[in-house]
């Protein structure tokens, strides 16, 4: 029996063995990558075929649309990303969301004299679907649809956007204001939304955000100017109420 | 809701429970002009709706509508005056006594519309070419039932100016005794 281990020969053998393993390893890896690529391509083709076949369902049914979006996300495809290309041409998804974005902005702007151009996602969805249902061709949209649409409005800069207002995925405020909302302003709006009360005071802002009175005052001034808050003068000091938070489910008309 | 009224009024606007709705801020209501305009217009609409539902024809600063006990908020006197001023400016209100300025008539319909209503009612009631007393016009289930006499006189004057009636009495500070409606 040949002894293992010692000797130049043994070392050479070991090295050769390792080389072979490495080669095999690389080959396996290459094969794996190839296979993965092929799978992805196949998957993509199937997905495209699926999209084409179910185009009308995707347009009509929000839940179906949601699942479809998830599938696209897993293979790293964003149907909204390009205005040209197979996806938007095939599905018209580009213009679908563009349409929602425009309608959403219209709704928010139309009530800006009441809430300064800030509205909860739930209220926006209600109002949007109400007006869409009046036109027979238009389908109901989900909250996710609206969020996607607004987020794709990057062209408008920081005038339009979303603020996460709570712990759950569906709690958002949509804003559309003529002046860009600075980070400080959105921070206060977000703080108010997450606080559970539809109002803030200078004191509550300072103690919860660790700000100076001056900084809080400056934000309050902007929010008043934009009509995002209304002033409540009480004997215990001034409170600033957000119509958008107060009326989240009641529909200020 | 404010603790009011024999007649049920249920059309409170959503803003009635929104504390800032009751704020009078220095010389204005809300400091933001657009917001203030909205606040004013909702108040005026509320007063008109409330008045027409409960057949209220005049109002002053003490009316309970200006306080919402549920949210512990009240409009100040200045706030109420601002609303009254705006109603007067837009012909939806009129001082009962211009020297006192504490009470206003509420024109939830314009005088012209009331004049038409009165004329129609006169026709229906067979009053044309006959004389009716003020009492008759303001009672007995007419559409103007409950209207303050001074307001009726103003409505009659509008009708008279268009040649549809003739007011009797009322000259030299005397009270109006009756009115003759023409065919």
TrEMBL record, chain A:
Cellular-component GO terms for this entry: ESCRT II complex
Single GO BP term: protein transport to vacuole involved in ubiquitin-dependent protein catabolic process via the multivesicular body sorting pathway
Coiled-coil portions: 26-53
Domain of life according to the entry: Eukaryota
Pfam families in UniProt: EAP30
Alphabetically ordered keywords of this record: Coiled coil
Family: Belongs to the SNF8 family.
Name the record gives this protein: Vacuolar-sorting protein SNF8
Source organism of the structure: Folsomia candida (Springtail)
